[in-house]
């Protein structure tokens, strides 16, 4: 399996050790995005990065494991509940201040993260899945012109591992 390095710009502290260890110059770019056309996936930049801002990701992902309809339906129900929780905590945060507000915002974020995990487990949010491709195809049929352009570009670049 072939890997390439990617940088999380939010974690990058600009120590630039990756520049010194990269044999191909893939990390030395103007916009701080690693050039995947030069990257050979050796992992030297990730090992050298003190802030752990660089990770190796596979170029191809395996197919998602199939889930029974019962599991998917239960996950979707929990996802819906987590979305309601997030909204409730955000509303409570707006009505609060100080430490209470901070607590409600933390609970809202926690609900959001749990909802994202549930969505992923329910066959959604995996860019290489047929579900994502179907969603993008629906956008192309129904949405405004800007959304159609973006959806078409995504479909060109995202592999469909379910075919």
- Low-pLDDT segments: none
Helical fraction? 40-55%
Rg for CA atoms = 20 Å
In round numbers, the mean pLDDT is 88
- Assign an overall shape: globular
Order of helices and strands: EHHEHHHH
Cα distance spanning the termini: 19 Å
Number of strands: 2
- Tally of separate helices: 6
The largest β sheet comes out as: 2 strands, antiparallel
- In spatial order, strands of the major sheet run 1-2
Walk me through the topology.
Elements: E1 3-7, H1 17-21, H2 44-48, E2 54-58, H3 69-94, H4 98-121, H5 130-142, H6 145-157
Antiparallel strand pairs: 1-2
Helix pairs in contact: 3-4, 5-6
In short:
The chain has 163 residues and is mainly alpha-helical.
Structure explained in plain terms:
By secondary structure, the protein is mainly alpha-helical. Helix content is 53%, strand content 6%. The chain has six helices and two strands, in the order βααβαααα. The protein has helices at residues 17-21, 44-48, 69-94, 98-121, 130-142, 145-157, and strands at 3-7, 54-58. The chain has a two-stranded antiparallel sheet. Helix 3 packs antiparallel against helix 4 (98-121) and helix 5 (130-142) runs antiparallel to helix 6. The model has no long low-confidence stretch (mean pLDDT 88).
């Amino acid at each position: 399996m072939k890997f390439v390095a990617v940088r999380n710009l939010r974690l990058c502290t600009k120590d630039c050790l990756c520049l010194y260890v990269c044999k191909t110059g893939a990390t030395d770019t103007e916009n701080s995005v690693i050039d995947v056309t030069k990257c050979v996936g050796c992992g030297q930049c990730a090992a050298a990065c003190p802030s752990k801002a660089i990770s190796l990701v596979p170029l191809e992902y395996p197919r998602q494991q199939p889930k029974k309809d019962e599991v998917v339906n239960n996950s979707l129900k929990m996802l819906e509940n987590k979305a309601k929780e997030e909204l409730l905590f955000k509303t409570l945060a707006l009505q609060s201040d100080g430490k209470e507000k901070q607590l409600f915002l933390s609970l809202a974020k926690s609900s959001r993260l749990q909802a994202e995990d549930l969505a992923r487990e329910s066959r959604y949010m995996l860019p290489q899945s047929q579900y994502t491709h179907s969603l993008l195809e629906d956008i192309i049929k129904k949405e405004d012109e800007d959304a159609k352009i973006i959806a078409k570009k995504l479909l060109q670049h995202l592999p469909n591992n379910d075919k």
